Amino acid sequence: MSIELDLVKDLPFRPFSSTPMAAAATKEKKHKHQDQYAEKQSRARKLANTSRQEVIRKIRAEEYGDPIRGITTPFIESFDAATGKAIKPSPELISAKSTAKDATKPPPSPANTVQEEYLNHFLTNTELRESLASSRKLTEPLISEDRASADPQVEKKAAQKHKQQDNIAEEAVSRILSLANSNSRERMRINVQRCIDAFGRHRTDQYLKPKPVSQAVLDYGPQDPVPRAGPDTGSSEVQIAILTAKIRVLANKYEGINHNDKVNKRNLRLLLHRRQKLLRYIQRKERGGERWQNLVQTLGLTAATWKGQIAVE
After folding, report:
1. What is the pTM of this model?
2. Higher pLDDT, residue 241 or 206
3. How far apart are CA 200 and CA 210, in angstroms?
4. How far apart are CA 268 and CA 247, in angstroms?
């Protein structure tokens, strides 16, 4: 018995504590923050960091943009009413290939174009002018060959009446052919034609520089370009522009009371992903050239349209 008591006396003294280790650590942290000056500094640093993160998040969101609509440009706004104009190259643009080959001369501007408005029912302004002139000539009042018995006052009144009726008929025809009175299907047809005229390579090759030629092509040797059989309707730029016009129509329908339209929501998602694939392809192929810059600036496309995941909520 005495041996056991001696062993207990030799053991080190360990005071009993009812406070767990976690609570003790919390108390130590509280004691550290008893300094009001250090606590205020910590709060100020945290607030500055939080505000800076919020500013950076907003800047990144603005640069990233909207994956559906992007940035609204005049060309995109004209899709709603299809009030664009047909682009016809001027003589400066016709001789653009010889100018573009010379590196010392700048390429001609796309603004140097002769613009002509589109019309409804697949008509052009030239056809309209010719039809109006023909109808005007057919409805002119006949002039009597016997000038001795002709009454000038009657002929003058008949000419005035014909002119008045011709003006009324011309106004009626112009209203019928105006795109402001067309349906959505006709506006989409015009928008598709506008995209072909604006981004087709049969137009853009006249004033945009081609992408840099790779070394493999240079080693292989020069090749003669294949002549086009007609307007460019299948290039990536044209398809992206057409998809953007369709996406804008579906996005306008999906907003508001049609928010629960599951069919249009799925169609909108499919068009967005198809455009995203084409944008990634042309970005990789053009390597940031003039064709890519012209496409992004005209359509108002942002990084959100071809980067990351696109979700339609």
Report:
1. 0.68
2. 241
3. 14
4. 6
